[in-house]
Amino acid sequence: MNEHGNEEPVFEFGVVIPRRVVQEKDESWDCASVLVKEFEKMGFIVERVVGIADEFIKLAAPLETLGRAAAELQIKKRTLIGMDLQFEVEEVEAFVKQPDGSVFSWCERFQCYCHLIYGIVNNSKSAKTLKFDGKEIHWEIGENLLQKLESENIVKQVFPLHDEKKRKKLLRSWALHWWDLTNQPIDEIYSYYGAKIAIYFAFLGMFTRWLLFPAACGLTLQLIDFGSLRLVVLPAFFIIVILWAIMFSQFWKRKNSALLARWPISSAVAADQGYKILGRKASSWQPPMELLKVFESDRAKEKEIFHRHEWLGRLMRFRNDAIIIFGIICLQLPFELAYAHLYEVLGSDLIKFGLTAVYLFAIQYITKIGGKVSVKLIMNENNENTEKRADSLVYKVFGLYFMQTYIGIFYHALLHRNFSTLRQVLIQRLLLSEVLENLLENSLPYLKYSYKKYRVRHKKNEKGEAREKFQFTSRVEKEYLKPSYSASIGEELEDGLFDDFLELALQFGMIMMFACAFPPAFAFAAVNNVMEIRTDALKLLAILRRPVPRAAATVGAWLNIFQFLILMSICTNCALLVWLYDEEGKWKIEPGLAAILIMEHVLLLIKFGFSRFVPEEPAWVRANRVKHTTQAQDICSKKLLRSISGGEKTLMEEKKLE
């Protein structure tokens, strides 16, 4: 029986090796045969598949195998009394099951698979000689087999496989379920993809639902002519939008904590939001060896040395941030302002179109260069774990995109005060940019997949063999040819969620910071996000490989960016209202202008004070945590008292014997 409770094995990992020209007669020497035997010794269920250009080894792990690996990894899991305890196979019924009924989450199973796959070493007393396609490989004593075969280019890749039954179920209930608009099977997404992707779709769904209210207000403001009352209605709309954004960010925190309480995520996993990578664990920050040596030899200097090392690390991060900011101001800002100025002064639409094409081509390279520099700087920071490094990347790269996306709009809005050009630019960004981005992010992976299939067939046809013999019949080979879910910048630290969150943050900034200039923007964003939910789901289920899971259980740095954009929105919209109110540009302190300035300060106070009014956790989450803590303390204290009383009885018996 497998981990899901079914008799039929569920193959969740694939190992790719090239097809051989020379077949070894003796299987004890053959690399592929030895690898299969070693996998079977580790407790895997193994199936070999011969594809068109490669061979594939599919792996499935029964519950006993996963349980053994979990015990070796000392994975802590949520128990029925709410405590997180180290997993033991014999006490499996004491642990909380996943929403789909399985014992282990996808992230935990991924860790166990990696531990077992990359845990095969030569434990014999002598080195072994293996052969593959006429090539000899020496497997030394204590050497890792998978890493050895990867270094010899015999194992091309190890990657997670889709569960076809669950994938088709999610296609029906999620990706193709358009009439439900924002409703999604979040628990099933968590069970299949892990916490990080489920949190993203929960955030996207809640954000889209909340968008419906300002979208209705914005459309009303656009369709009804308020005449002279428009200068009163616009500030009211602005106040409503800011209050809406503040409430959304606070209520999302409540939603996030409720989801974490509902899912059996270990507190250790939530605290160390690490990101498992095939073949190795993403390294958390560790103190340098010289500090540990000093700590062991002279404990008196422990605090001083660690204090110094901590602040040196903070100064290094500050230095890196300063480098990025300096680069944005000195290199990217002049480029963006030059483009915005030329777009303003040029009269020909054809020349404007050509200028925009050159700009878009050049800005992609500038952003990629900035991203690469950011990654190199981050690698030298002493961040606690990979999620902290990913957050650092988010802040740095968002600065590049913030300048790229908004500086031209600021130029039109605040310097030239060209309201018609501002609305035109906003419509172009919201309609053309988002639609084109949706088309590209879904069509490009499919084109890459089709091109890979064509290349495989073309190579076979070059050998003079008939085309009809080479149809992709095996699912594992099709999945191998699909693109991975990777980030466009910093794929060493982030996956495809980086681009999805970035797109959402830039959209939020666009509709919030210029809400008074173009109120219907919220309606465009709502429609786009309804489509985004289904197209992103379709992309994950049908176009891309199954992503590597991430244990992080919050949106991380992106929530701070949303908070920053709310603050920016208060300032930019007040500036727009001042501009509309003071048409002559005399900037007199009249009642209307004074009211706008007072309103700005009041909204800033509300922004910082609302978190005190709405708690970040629902009452039932706090009550459950207190209940579980009390139960755990009662059980621990009873066991401690029994051990103490048992020890005293033993001492009394020993004294009587004496």
From TrEMBL:
The keyword Transmembrane applies. It is a multi-pass membrane protein. The keyword Membrane applies. GO terms for molecular function: chloride channel activity. Residues 189-627 form the Anoctamin transmembrane domain. It is found in: Membrane. The chain crosses the membrane at residues 197-221, 233-252, 322-341, 353-371, 392-414, 504-530, 551-581, 593-610. Keywords: Membrane, Transmembrane, Transmembrane helix. GO terms for cellular component: membrane. InterPro entries: Anoctamin (IPR007632), Anoctamin_TM (IPR049452). Its main location: membrane. PANTHER family: ANOCTAMIN. This is Anoctamin-10.
